Amino acid sequence: MDDFLFRGDLADVDPDVAALVDLEALRQARRLILIPSESSVPASVRQAIGSVFHNIYAEGYPDPDWRDFDQTQILAADMRLAEYRRYSDARYYKGTEFADLIESLARRRAAELFANDAVPAEDLWVNVQPLSGAPANNAVFSALLQPGDTIMGMDLLHGGHLTHGSPVNRSGLLYNVVSYGVDPTTELLDYDHIRLLAQEHRPKIIIAGYTSYPMAPDWAAFR
């Protein structure tokens, strides 16, 4: 499908921006900077996220009944499109029938990836819309906490995250924050000290899982 506004590749339309993109590609290939929230995305993924789906606004979700479909059922496009024409969906704008298919396919694939013998894919609720961990944490806080409640999270300077109670983040502004960190000698979490802090301050939530702490947390100890 031809472009209707800007014609040609980026290098033809805006060679300056194209040159900067090339320079960034070289930087990433030649430099190793260990930032936990960054990753190298394969070219095929970049093609998908830069596709024509970028052009549409698809606020809302596909038909909830489609969560029960396996990949073969989702990709039965004629059947799914017939359902869409008859029942539409819960999105605020129309023209999203193919967005419904690709989002349902992504949800199902994620559900199958995390399914196990005890919890089948059909019982997993998956959201694949492009949100980061920060709004996910805020959603949990909003559901379980009231402003002023006490929470415990790892200190940002020890490897925690902004949303774990940093004073410059919503979590640090709305809630009473008790921070824990690593032992200065071992640079490992001191679970005995964390337990004492929890017993003293009685937080409504203890946040475990970090931005730049390289060890796996002891989940049983936190529980």
Q: How many distinct domains?
A: 2
Global Rg:
23 Å
Assigned CATH superfamily of the largest domain: Type I PLP-dependent aspartate aminotransferase-like (Major domain)
Report the end-to-end length measured between terminal Cα atoms.
54 Å
Helical content class: 40-55%
pLDDT averaged residue by residue:
91
**Strand portion, in percent?**
5-15%
- Sheet/helix structural class: mainly alpha
The first-level CATH class name of the largest domain: Alpha Beta
CATH architecture assignment of the largest domain: 3-Layer(aba) Sandwich
CATH topology of the largest domain: Aspartate Aminotransferase, domain 2
How many helical stretches? 10
**Biggest β-sheet: count, sense, barrel?**
3 strands, parallel
Strand order of the largest sheet: 2-1-3
Description:
It is built from 10 helices and 3 strands; from the N terminus they run αααααααβαβαβα. The chain is mostly helical. The radius of gyration is 23 Å and the shape is globular. The protein has helices spanning 10-13, 15-30, 43-49, 71-74, 77-87, 97-114, 133-144, 170-174, 191-201, 219-222, and strands at residues 150-154, 176-180, 205-206. The model has no long low-confidence stretch (mean pLDDT 91). The termini are far apart. It folds into 2 domains: 52-123, no CATH class; 133-222, Aspartate Aminotransferase, domain 2 (3-Layer(aba) Sandwich). The protein has a 3-stranded parallel β-sheet.
Brief digest:
Helices cover 41% and strands 5% of the residues. It is mainly α and 223 residues long. It folds into two domains: 52-123, no CATH class; 133-222, Type I PLP-dependent aspartate aminotransferase-like (Major domain) (Aspartate Aminotransferase, domain 2), CATH 3.40.640.
